[in-house]
Amino acid sequence: MISPKLKCILIEDEPLATKKIVEYIHMFPDLQLIKMVEDIENPALFSHDLKSADILFLDLIVSGGNINTLAELIADIPILIITSAVSRWHYPEFIKNRKHFALQKPISPEMFQSCIKEVMQY
């Protein structure tokens, strides 16, 4: 039996970081990127996609608004991977209070691979 791919969403506004993370996602056949979001000003434009996501790659500083406005929308996403240069000590409470994985920028292929291996064991 073929297992379904894990549906991924990337919320990131830095072009180079977006390019790299997309490349890294494509290195894993079990991952499927279904949406990229550069601006969180209007969450209604991507809230439907969030409901079907298995993994959210989330930068904490994104154009268009405060990441805290997404707290309720992302609460039910099974796997949250923070992709940020922000120190863990400065993560918003809604992230600190839930299971999450972290990739500190700049993200190398090795860091990404290690994180995905950990996620797959979760």
Automatic annotation (TrEMBL):
- As given in the record, the signal peptide range reads none
Does the record's keyword annotation contain Phosphoprotein?
A: yes
Query: For the modification 4-aspartylphosphate, which residues carry it?
Result: 59
Key words of the record? Phosphoprotein
Q: What's a single GO BP term from this record?
A: phosphorelay signal transduction system
What is the superkingdom listed in this entry's lineage?
Bacteria
Record-linked InterPro entries = CheY-like_superfamily, Sig_transdc_resp-reg_receiver
Q: Where is the Response regulatory domain?
A: 7-120
Q: Output this protein's name.
A: Response regulatory domain-containing protein
